[in-house]
């Protein structure tokens, strides 16, 4: 599915032909299929904020937040919404080739282990003697050994089963596994779709609460775009920041933009997913001090160390290889306050 801005053609009809030459094409990939948490990008597209910056942005659906990184590295896309931890992995092996995060949106990670309360798992120690299921290669699964070490869990006493992501919740509901390695923003709504009550009938072991203080998804751009067209990067960041502030204040216009992009999604479900992201993934305490889009270098450095340990990386990238704050708009335009309506 592709949606493009063709404001340049309208400008030409209005007698402003020179504007056409100034438009910059940007190929943009989302992190997954259309979801409410994509609202900052879809609102910027819908309201013409990209066009105001002289950008002709084409947005495609994604194949996973880690795949955003490889899609950009492969040259198919110039920018996208993806996981900073996947940047760390690729920057370690291929320095100078991995994309760079320029606007951090999810300042809290979605990585968690979810267990039904009937499984009797109330603390990390209770994982011993239980069976956990997850998709091989996902951050939650790969980082579990680090989680276990930090929380005194004997890995040899925890059975782990590899399974497709779409089987995790059904198998947990049936009792085939005692818990699952998940992304909260996905699993929460999968449970609801299976007529479960994720708030009252499940325990959530969020990695950030157990020593895994990681960042997650945000706006990243290719090294080529950084080097060849920094003005376009700055315009892209300004447009996304403007839309992010509006998303926090007005979810009605956000859902309208989501539906304009993809009218096959469930508006109520994706509104709920957007609200979940706003109140669970984008509200780290540091935002009040540094504003939306920025991050804390020391925390990023700790994240790099955690990811390196979990993935067995041979090299620790510097924080400056992963994140570039030089394109951020002034702090007073990035004050993030969520108002649910």
TrEMBL record:
Keyword Cell cycle: no
Recorded superkingdom: Bacteria
Domain named SsuA/THI5-like: residues: 39-252
Molecular-function annotations in GO: metal ion binding; transferase activity
UniProt pathway annotation: Cofactor biosynthesis; thiamine diphosphate biosynthesis
Pfam families per record: NMT1
Signal peptide stretch: 1-21
Catalytic activity: N(6)-(pyridoxal phosphate)-L-lysyl-[4-amino-5-hydroxymethyl-2-methylpyrimidine phosphate synthase] + L-histidyl-[4-amino-5-hydroxymethyl-2-methylpyrimidine phosphate synthase] + 2 Fe(3+) + 4 H2O = L-lysyl-[4-amino-5-hydroxymethyl-2-methylpyrimidine phosphate synthase] + (2S)-2-amino-5-hydroxy-4-oxopentanoyl-[4-amino-5-hydroxymethyl-2-methylpyrimidine phosphate synthase] + 4-amino-2-methyl-5-(phosphooxymethyl)pyrimidine + 3-oxopropanoate + 2 Fe(2+) + 2 H(+)
SUPFAM superfamilies in the cross-refs: Periplasmic binding protein-like II
InterPro entries referenced in this protein's UniProt entry, alphabetically: NMT1/THI5, SsuA/THI5
GO biological process terms held by the UniProt record: thiamine biosynthetic process
Keyword Signal annotated: yes
Alphabetically ordered keywords of this record: Iron, Metal-binding, Pyridoxal phosphate, Signal, Thiamine biosynthesis, Transferase
Subunit architecture: Homodimer.
Role of this protein: Responsible for the formation of the pyrimidine heterocycle in the thiamine biosynthesis pathway. Catalyzes the formation of hydroxymethylpyrimidine phosphate (HMP-P) from histidine and pyridoxal phosphate (PLP). The protein uses PLP and the active site histidine to form HMP-P, generating an inactive enzyme. The enzyme can only undergo a single turnover, which suggests it is a suicide enzyme.
Family: Belongs to the NMT1/THI5 family.
Annotated protein name in UniProt: Thiamine pyrimidine synthase
Phylogenetic classification of the source organism: Bacteria, Pseudomonadati, Pseudomonadota, Alphaproteobacteria, Rhodobacterales
């Amino acid at each position: 599915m592709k949606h493009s801005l063709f404001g340049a053609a309208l400008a030409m009809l209005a007698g402003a032909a020179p504007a056409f030459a100034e438009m910059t094409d940007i190929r943009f990939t989302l992190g997954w299929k259309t979801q409410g948490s994509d609202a900052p990008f879809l609102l910027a597209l819908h309201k013409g904020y990209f066009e105001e910056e002289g950008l002709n942005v084409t947005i495609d659906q994604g194949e996973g937040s880690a795949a955003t990184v490889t899609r950009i590295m492969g040259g198919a896309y110039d920018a996208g919404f993806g996981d900073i931890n996947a940047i760390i992995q690729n920057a370690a092996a291929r320095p100078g080739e991995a994309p760079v995060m320029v606007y951090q949106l999810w300042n809290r990670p979605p990585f968690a282990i979810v267990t039904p309360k009937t499984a009797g798992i109330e603390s990390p120690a209770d994982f011993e003697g239980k069976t956990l299921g997850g998709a091989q290669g996902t951050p939650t699964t790969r980082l579990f050994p680090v989680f276990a070490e930090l929380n005194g869990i004997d890995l040899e006493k925890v059975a782990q089963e590899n399974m497709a992501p779409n089987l995790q919740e059904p198998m947990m509901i049936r009792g085939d596994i005692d818990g699952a390695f998940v992304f909260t923003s996905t699993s929460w709504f999968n449970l609801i779709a299976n007529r479960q009550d994720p708030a009252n009938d499940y325990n959530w072991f969020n990695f950030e609460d157990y020593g895994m203080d990681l960042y997650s998804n945000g706006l990243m751009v290719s090294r080529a775009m950084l080097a060849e067209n920094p003005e376009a990067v700055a315009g892209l960041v300004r447009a996304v920041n403007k839309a992010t502030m509006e998303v926090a204040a007005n979810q009605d216009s956000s859902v309208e933009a989501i539906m304009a992009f993809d009218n096959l999604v469930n508006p109520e479900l994706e509104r709920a997913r957007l609200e979940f992201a706003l109140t669970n993934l984008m509200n780290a305490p540091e935002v009040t001090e540094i504003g939306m889009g920025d991050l804390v270098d020391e925390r990023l450095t700790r994240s790099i160390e955690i990811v390196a340990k979990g993935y067995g990386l041979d090299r620790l990238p510097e924080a400056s290889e992963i994140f570039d704050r030089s394109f951020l708009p002034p702090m007073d335009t990035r004050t993030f306050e969520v108002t649910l309506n």
